Amino acid sequence: MVLYNERFIILVFRGSANLSNWITDLDKKLTGFKQGSGYVHAGFYKSVQEMERAINSILKLVRTNNQKIYITGHSLGGAQALLSAFVCDSLKDFERITTFGQPRVGDKNFAKWVTEKIQNDAKNKSKYFRVVNKYDPVANLPYWGYYHCNNFYLSCNEGENYTCKDGEFKRPFGGTTESMVEDIKAVNSESMVEDIKAVNSESMVEDIVAIKFNLFANHYMELYLKNAFRNINYDPFHR
After folding, report:
1. Non-local CB neighbours of 126 within 8 Å, separated by 6+ positions
2. Which CATH class is domain 2-175+220-230?
3. What separation in angstroms does the CA of 141 have from each of 48, 55, 75, 177, 235?
4. pTM value?
5. Rounded distance, CA 5 to CA 186, Å?
6. Strand partners, 39
7. What is the dihedral of CA 193, 194, 200, 201, to 10 degrees?
8. pLDDT per residue over 98-136, tens digit each?
9. How far is Cα of residue 39 from the mean position of the Cα atoms in its chain?
């Protein structure tokens, strides 16, 4: 989706919405990134390549006043937002990328290459902001061989303000991050144990749905929006 006026253009990528999107998510083998360095998720990369011509055509049509370009997306759409900025010629001078619940996109060489392109000594002037709800499991996938870009990210727990946390390049082991450990603890929470016990109840189907909800509730866009509106006037970089 493209939103625009005479001052700015916003390119929006949605999260997984159908079977085709889920297949894209699951196609996680690494493939060479032709526009830069390193290897990236094959499914994410292919999906952006398939949209490249359409994106360039639309931007050529609506960018009539040299408007600033903002790119955003949730989940799969977050991965597509990041990749599109370097795949699509019409987006090369983008102003900012903001993603929500974005999975990891590429290997360490790709993450390093992107980080060098977008980071700024003043974090609030970075060209890339990755927002993560605490305990969102998707934001730490895929685990092995993949790394997030940039040297920081914004974390938020329900009912709290954003906090700026060190990215994976400031941690010694990349994949085995503090946030991963937190996710594992969250899965073993008291409420999860209760849900597992409930699977033995008469309403098994409803209980299985409840388990799924507990696992992924922190990934839903509704919670990201709720947290974003609460933080609209909050500056996490000067605290």
Report:
1. 118, 119, 120, 150, 152
2. alpha beta
3. 19, 27, 10, 12, 28
4. 0.79
5. 42
6. 32
7. -170
8. 999 999 999 999 999 999 888 777 777 889 999 999 888
9. 18
